[in-house]
Design goal:
heterodimer, A: Helicase, Ruva Protein, domain 3, 6 helices, B: 660 residues, four-stranded antiparallel beta sheet, 64% helix
Chain lengths: 167, 660
């Protein structure tokens, strides 16, 4: 599968007219500055390899992923901030390139949907717990008979899960 | 000949499922035990027929009968026998037969359930039969696994080499047992909606019938997902085990819904409360199972795991999903308002804690659902493409679960109906103090120092210690003589031990996941033989690389020595890069060096050249601290589920006696 992805990546690159002379994938050369390299690595985890299925460029063996890794390192070495690197990638490839979806009109439901559900459930529970319980219905004749039989029958098993406070 | 028998058995199974449904419905309407009994017989025969079909399919794969299109497409004579057999469920058609086998097999077990009221059982058997009709029709008419090929090729196309792995050979059966096990909960829920009434004795009994199915399915699913994650960890060679990939999410949603179900079913069983909610979750769990099957099989989502993808069949699955779940939820909307269970309880009580658990689990499930489907919906709505990956789930799913874990240890300590929060606080004080201490120690022990990872370590410790505190409380540890402790420990029901194991296993998993995610160290560079790469405290030397021949592949096999940086405690690992000529695919076999709880994870990459022109291999090394716990935790959880399940049978026996 990785090979298939690689082939797909190569095809993708050669399809672009500018890349008629396809260079071998850029080798990974860590930045000399450890702090900068750590920033680059953190960014790699958030950037999607756009020709792969669902992989970050940190994990992908595709040529394009290697190119983007080199690009990110280059920009960080040039002193650009994480935000600038991200913005630049989004300009090139669209929102699709970041694994963190943007927060804007169309995605507020994505970001806050589950929180809203949680709050709604919490509010519902709160109101339910404040509602006075309905009057307990009296037992029917049949149930009274059942109750009497059960109470008379000492074979009722002790509840193994019972807590001292239940007793 | 055997293949034709298999094809015939599958068609026969479809006919039997139709019979089962028809007779169960008629039996229920006419209140005829004879008809209902005949329906149960048909269910049994149907399961046997599907089992025969499945056996025929496995036989075709085992002998490499390439006149069967499915075998020709997915098998190869060179493949080891395990993977020939596993290929039977590795393809779309074969996996559908497996799905039907589990569906009808569990349906047959359901007919043997004792003590179910006549109407409820007949309705459940009818529903299970209807599910069987739909999936068997799907298997027979659109995805026939037994279709012949003429002329038969001399050799097959082989199974995707990535799938040729022991963990993945057993991943689908476990996953499907979990997915489809929820179908019985679904059928029982539908039956309860048809038959159930606001009767104080009905719902506890119903809860008792549903719980074992929920428990078993959840435990199977736990094992299945863990096998899948472990496979992704050591077969894909990317150093990770979970990427919030849509297909991973597809299996995770039924798991979350199932976890919520088995907790809410406890309340329904013990107190008759939450009847409507438990019913809803039972419908939801199987709906997510079908949604998962649809997402994986249809190819609407891009994923590294999407195998055997076919849009047309996806559409069929979507139709089945829409028809079943749509009808079931419509039934729910109609009937549920009338189904008030009994059982009042105060907000602070065992029931209250279980409700809170359900709120968090369903919200977490909603997050996963949103994260999985939102890109699809957004693209369909306005063409915008976004990616939802790990950073999103770290910000939404993880805080929800963390909040749930904070309150989890208090739950089992609270009494039913009305709990004593202060008393629970006192009982958990020691565990809480220790957990905070461990959080601080964890924060200091690992470099670089990360406050959130430290807190996560504390949370994992809190889950384990808080759970153990509950057992200590029950056996009166340190407050009674040892003999008394032991006597009490022996008299604890298996279900209580199951709960303890499952919760502690969750803590073990949290510890592993937090430490591995927070502190893993990665390094990569081209190595010529004799050269060394360092990752954290480990040094890995490439000793030699040679070409070896496997049964159906060629491999570059690297021998590497893992040592501490000062050269201490050396161990040799083997990492391979396999090339499968059939299909022309390359896979990696990760070299895993187990060091206590840690893994040193070595991947041999492509061959290249050093600056000096010598041959060199791109070696990637990860030091994954505490990675062992990530897979150990879920194993403990599944064991907990199994223990609880064994307890159920005992208790059912106890409960049956007075009725007899």
């Amino acid at each position: 599968m990785k090979r298939a992805l690689l082939i797909a990546a190569v095809l993708f690159l050669t399809a672009a007219p500018a890349a008629a002379q396809e260079p071998p994938p850029t080798p990974d050369r860590p930045l000399p500055d450890a702090a900068q390299e750590a920033r680059a690595q953190a960014l790699f985890d958030d950037i999607r390899c756009v020709v792969c299925q669902h992989e970050a460029i940190a994990d992908s063996p595709a040529g394009l992923a290697a190119d983007v890794r080199a690009l990110v390192r280059e920009q960080i070495a040039a002193g650009r901030s994480d935000e600038q690197v991200r913005d630049d990638l989004v300009r090139r490839y669209g929102d699709f390139v970041l694994f963190t979806p943007p927060l804007r009109g169309g995605t507020w439901l994505l970001w806050f949907g589950s929180l809203a559900a949680l709050l709604a459930a919490g509010a519902g529970l709160w109101f339910a717990s404040r509602r006075r319980p309905a009057a307990v219905e009296p037992l029917s004749a049949a149930e009274e008979a059942d109750l009497a039989r059960i109470l008379a029958d000492q074979a009722v098993r002790p509840d193994p899960d019972a807590k001292p406070s239940d007793d | 000949m055997i293949v034709e028998l298999g094809a015939f058995a599958l068609i026969l199974a479809l006919a039997l499922a139709v019979l089962q449904t028809g007779m169960a419905v008629a039996g229920r309407l006419r209140r005829s035990p004879v008809l209902a009994g005949a329906a149960e017989g048909a269910a049994l025969a149907c399961a046997v027929a599907v089992a025969l079909a499945f056996a025929a399919l496995i036989q075709a794969f085992a002998v490499s009968d390439f006149s069967v299109a499915n075998v020709a497409a997915n098998s190869h004579t060179d493949k080891p026998m395990l993977y020939k057999v596993a290929a039977a469920w590795g393809s779309h058609e074969g996996s559908l037969v497996l799905w039907c086998l589990v569906l009808t097999g569990f349906g047959a077990v359901l007919t043997r359930a004792r003590g179910l009221p006549f109407g409820l059982k007949a309705s459940a058997v009818a529903t299970q039969g209807l599910l069987g009709v739909m999936f068997l029709a799907f298997a027979v008419f659109t995805s026939n696994a037994f279709e012949r090929l003429d002329p038969a090729p001399f050799q097959g196309g082989s199974l995707n080499p990535l799938l040729q792995d022991p963990a993945l050979a057993f991943h689908p059966p476990f996953l499907y047992a979990g997915y489809v096990g929820f179908s019985v909960c679904f059928s029982l829920a539908v039956a309860a909606l048809i038959e159930g009434r606001a009767n104080s004795s009905f719902w506890p009994a119903w809860g008792r019938w549903v719980r074992p199915w929920a428990l078993a399915s959840w435990a199977f699913l736990t094992v299945g997902i863990t096998l899948g994650a472990f496979w992704a960890y050591y077969e894909l060679g990317w150093g990770g085990w979970w990427f919030w990939d849509p297909v991973e999410n597809a299996s995770f949603m039924p798991w979350l819904a199932g976890a919520a179900l088995l907790h809410s079913a406890v309340v329904t069983e013990r107190r008759g409360a939450l009847a409507g909610w438990t019913t809803f979750l039972a419908l939801l769990a199987f709906t997510f199972s079908m949604l998962g099957a649809f997402l994986v099989r249809s190819g609407v989502l891009t994923s590294v795991h999407a195998f055997a993808v076919d849009p047309e069949r996806g559409l069929m699955l979507l139709a089945i999903l829409g028809a079943t779940s749509g009808a079931a939820f419509a039934l729910f909307a109609w009937r549920a308002p009338r189904l008030k269970g009994g059982g009042m309880f105060a907000p602070v009580s065992r029931e209250g804690a279980l409700v809170l658990n359900n709120v968090f689990l369903t919200a977490a499930c909603a997050t996963v659902l949103l994260g999985t489907l939102y890109p699809l919906i957004l693209e369909a709505a306005n063409g915008a493409t976004i990616s939802v990956g790990p950073p999103y789930f770290a910000l939404t799913f993880v805080p929800l679960m963390a909040a749930a874990f904070l309150i989890l240890p208090a739950g089992p300590l609270l009494a039913w109906k009305r709990g004593d929060l202060k008393g629970v606080g006192q009982r958990l004080a020691v565990a809480a103090g220790l957990a905070i201490l461990i959080a601080l120690l964890g924060w200091m022990a690992f470099e670089p120092k990360k406050a959130l990872s430290g807190a996560g370590i504390g949370l994992g410790a809190w889950l384990i210690l808080g759970t153990l505190a509950e057992v200590a409380e029950r056996v009166r540890l340190f407050r009674a003589p040892l003999a008394e402790n032991l006597r009490r420990a022996r008299s604890l029901p298996l279900g209580a031990w199951g709960t303890t194991l499952a919760h502690a296993g969750l803590g073990v998993f949290v510890l592993g996941a937090v430490v591995e995610t927070g502190y893993r160290v990665e390094a990569a560079r081209p190595l010529a033989p004799g050269q060394t790469i360092e990752a954290g405290k480990w040094a890995v030397r490439l000793d030699s690389v040679r070409v070896v021949e496997g049964p159906n592949y060629l491999a570059e096999q690297g021998k590497l020595t893992v040592t501490l940086r000062d050269g201490g405690s050396p161990k040799t690992v083997t990492a391979e890069r396999r090339f499968f000529p059939t299909g022309g695919q390359t896979t990696t076999e990760v070299g895993l060096d187990f060091r206590g709880l840690d893994d040193v994870y070595v991947v041999l990459g492509e061959r290249g050249q050093t600056a000096a022109g010598e041959p060199a291999w791109n070696v990637r090394v990860w030091w994954n601290p505490w990675a062992r716990l990530i897979f150990l935790g879920p194993a403990i959880m599944a064991l907990g589920g199994l223990l609880s399940l064994l307890d159920r049978r005992l208790r059912l026996g106890v409960n049956r006696r007075p009725a007899a």
